[in-house]
Specification:
Layout lengths: L4 H22 L22 H9 L11 E4 L5 E6 L13 H20 L2 E7 L15 E7 L30 H7 L8 E6 L2 H20 L1 H9 L1 E3 H8 L3 E3 L2 H8 L5 H5 L4 H15 L3 E7 L4 H21 L2 E4 L11 H10 L7 E9 L16 E2 L1
Parallel strand pairs: 1-11, 6-7
Antiparallel strand pairs: 1-2, 2-4, 3-4, 5-8, 8-10, 9-10
Helix pairs in contact: 2-3, 3-11, 5-10, 5-12
Bound molecules: flavin mononucleotide.
The site of flavin mononucleotide has 17 residues, from α3.
Length: 384
């Protein structure tokens, strides 16, 4: 049958609508490109070197992606880093230990970016004194950038835009290669921050159970779980609006949202399907883990926490270079009362000496690189 011109136009129009609708279904609650623009639009052309290095520093891993950084640029040639105390996680991180690890990671990425720009850094931790049990308004660090023709670019700099926390199940058919485990131990040199990589079945299976129990405790403790629910960004619009927190994107979230099955109330309700599928997702990730690594320190001062963050950032970047995915799973390390008995159990299981602190625990394995997580605009962090 010959198509008339009118019918042809009608048919073409209908096809276009169907294709567009199909695209919309696939793209439902897709990660908005503006929310992750920081990963490709690094301000490497800014005439102020401080802004150039900061545009990399802000890609640092940090708990719940709160990005709790305030950067004061009002002193010429100096960067003063403060903690944004409106972005803390007091229930799950009561002493802000993890928040400070995130600051350490920020400093390490800043230093790597400085190396790539032919500068060395002079970083003074806590120039007005270390925090006590609570973070206060004093600076975390003061940084000076000094032009230095002798400073070689650190090769880990090249990994910053590729780095991720891979919050997905890993390939269960691929054990961690021995040379990759060994390669990770060369990521940093800080002798006070001990790294252990475990690939043996007893410890891997034990830790798979431990991280699930840790998550279970967090989920069943209303105030700690609610803290996470409060910072969930549900769907593309919320993710783009906040560009921080726990980003929930993708078509299943979109459909769940449209059908009224995924929203803040449902996610907070342990009897809901949304909650249950979160639990299942976590279990699947824990079980799809061929190796774990952990970092311990003999003391737990605020400066040590920054040093751990710097070491962890290097480890994450080294893993990226080796094609190894990393994913911190920190619940069991947290300091609130309900977690203490499980934590004591894991410290004993791993033979960690009394008085030492397990600062980071992470899954290791292989998986396709996931999408980056959102970042705010650099401008939002700056005091100028
Ligand atoms: C100290 C620390 C603890 C973390 N703990 C967890 C965790 O328990 N579970 C998790 O999924 N991610 C954890 N992360 C990863 C962050 O969620 C992640 O860095 C953040 O969402 C930003 O994503 P990105 O690392 O891919 O840029 C942790 C990161 C840091 C620095």
């Amino acid at each position: 049958m010959m198509l008339s011109r009118r019918n042809f136009i009608l048919m073409a129009g209908t096809t276009a609508v169907i294709v567009a609708a199909g695209r919309a279904v696939i793209d439902l609650d897709k990660m908005p490109s503006t929310a992750i623009a920081a990963w490709s639009k690094v301000e490497s052309t800014d005439s102020d070197i401080r802004k150039r290095v900061l545009s990399y520093a802000m890609l640092a891993p940090n708990p719940h992606n709160m990005q709790p950084w305030i950067v004061d640029l009002r002193q010429p040639r100096q960067i003063d880093l403060y903690c944004d105390r409106t972005r803390l996680l007091p229930e799950t991180d009561p002493f802000s230990r993890q928040i400070l690890i995130g600051h350490g990671a920020f400093l390490e990425l800043l230093d790597l970016a400085a190396s790539a720009a032919g500068h060395r850094t002079e970083i003074t931790y806590f120039p007005k004194g270390e925090f006590g049990d609570r973070i206060d308004g004093r600076p975390v660090a003061s940084i000076r950038l000094i032009s230095d023709a002798d400073r070689e670019p650190d090769p880990l700099f090249q990994q910053i835009l590729q780095r991720r926390s891979a919050k997905v199940p890993f390939d269960t058919t691929r054990p961690l290669r021995v040379e990759h485990g060994q390669g990770l131990t060369t990521a940093y040199t800080d002798p006070d921050c001990k790294l252990t990589v475990a690939t043996d079945q007893p410890r891997v299976l034990g830790l798979q159970g431990v991280v699930q129990s840790g998550m279970e405790i967090e989920l069943r403790t209303p105030r700690t779980y609610q803290e996470s629910v409060n910072v969930m960004r549900i769907g593309a619009q919320e993710v783009n609006q906040h560009r921080n927190g726990i980003d929930l994107t993708g078509a299943p979230i979109g459909w769940g949202r449209l059908l009224g099955m995924v929203n803040r109330e449902k996610l907070a309700d342990p009897t809901s399907e949304a909650f249950q599928s979160g639990v299942t997702m976590y279990r699947d990730m824990a079980e799809a883990t061929p190796a774990f690594a952990w970092m311990t320190t003999s003391n737990n001062t605020r400066s040590t926490q920054l040093a751990v963050g710097r070491a962890y950032a290097r480890l994450n970047l080294k893993a990226t270079a080796l094609g190894v995915a990393t994913h911190p799973m920190s619940q069991v390390l947290q300091e609130y009362a309900e977690m203490q008995s499980l934590q004591q159990g894991v410290l004993a299981m791993l033979g960690i000496p009394k008085g030492h602190t397990m600062q980071m625990l992470m899954r290791l394995g292989y998986v396709e690189q996931p999408d980056p997580s959102p970042r705010r605009d650099l401008q939002d962090l700056l005091l100028t």
